[in-house]
């Protein structure tokens, strides 16, 4: 039986990157439609043709017996649906109900607890760069106080929690002894937002030393990013954005 046609709408430097990793690990056939951010740092209006909010990632699934595609438009929803419906061999299926509950927790934790603090720091940085002439120093001063007392403190608490979870199980993957939805969903905020780009971290005012502060997270990040299909996913994303055209997976 032919596989459903799957299209990933991929906005450059967005959370869609981890979905490429997921698809590669599952060995799915898929297409990528690439988009660039507008000069105003918002997603292009074409994405609203896929889903009204016009955000990425968004995945369309075309089934032979249905004229309308299924649309998935949240990272956690995408990871959960794809694993539930396309992991036919149970490669990433949790070993127990307790493990499944933990995977589901991380799917919500990544987007509901971890990412908002990173996004808030990013928004603050953009605001400081776009402040009216002569007021940049004041905006930076106010934001630094807000960040240190709330967003940065909350982010460090979340990272310490993740590090302690890995420490409690002596490292490895987040749930059980194999890759799961938890690792897919945490790949973007940990790897691409924090560990992959030290300059970005410094620019956002995130004063952390990963190797010293979160050694288990560093080990986990290395475990994930050295997987051959993670490397392949990075290469595919780079190729898509370089050529600015769709790519078959």
From TrEMBL:
Q: Which Gene3D superfamilies match?
A: 1.20.1050.10, Glutaredoxin (3.40.30.10)
* Residue span(s) of domain GST C-terminal: 96-247
What region holds the GST N-terminal domain? 3-90
Q: Note the InterPro entries from the entry.
A: Glutathione-S-Trfase_C-like, Glutathione-S-Trfase_C_sf, Glutathione_S-Trfase, Glutathione_S-Trfase_N, GST_C, Thioredoxin-like_sf
Name the protein family: Belongs to the GST superfamily.
Among PANTHER family, the record links this protein to: GLUTATHIONE S-TRANSFERASE 1 (PTHR44051:SF9), GLUTATHIONE S-TRANSFERASE-RELATED (PTHR44051)
Query: What is the name of the protein in this document?
Result: Glutathione S-transferase
Q: What is the scientific name of the source organism?
A: Metschnikowia bicuspidata var. bicuspidata NRRL YB-4993
């Amino acid at each position: 039986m032919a596989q459903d046609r799957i299209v990933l709408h991929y906005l450059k430097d967005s959370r869609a990157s981890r979905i490429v990793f997921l698809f590669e690990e599952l060995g799915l056939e898929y297409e990528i439609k690439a988009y660039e951010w507008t000069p105003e740092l918002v997603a292009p209006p074409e994405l609203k043709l896929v889903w009204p909010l016009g955000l990425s990632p968004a995945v369309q699934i075309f089934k032979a017996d249905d004229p309308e595609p299924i649309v998935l438009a949240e990272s956690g929803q995408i990871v959960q649906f794809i694993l539930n419906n396309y992991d036919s061999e149970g490669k990433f299926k949790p070993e127990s109900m307790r493990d499944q509950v933990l995977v589901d927790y991380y799917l919500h934790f990544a987007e509901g607890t971890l990412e908002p603090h990173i996004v808030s720091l990013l928004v603050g940085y953009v605001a400081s760069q776009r402040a009216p002439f002569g007021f940049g120093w004041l905006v930076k001063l106010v934001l630094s106080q807000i960040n240190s007392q709330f967003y940065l403190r909350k982010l460090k608490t979340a990272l310490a929690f993740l590090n302690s979870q890995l420490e409690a199980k002596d490292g490895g993957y987040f749930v059980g002894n194999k890759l799961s939805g938890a690792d897919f969903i945490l790949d973007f905020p940990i790897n691409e937002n924090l560990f992959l780009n030290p300059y970005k971290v410094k620019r956002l005012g995130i004063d952390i030393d990963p190797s010293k502060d979160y050694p288990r997270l560093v080990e986990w990040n290395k475990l994930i990013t050295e997987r051959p299909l993670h490397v392949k996913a990075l290469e595919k994303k780079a190729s898509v954005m370089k050529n600015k055209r769709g790519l078959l997976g």
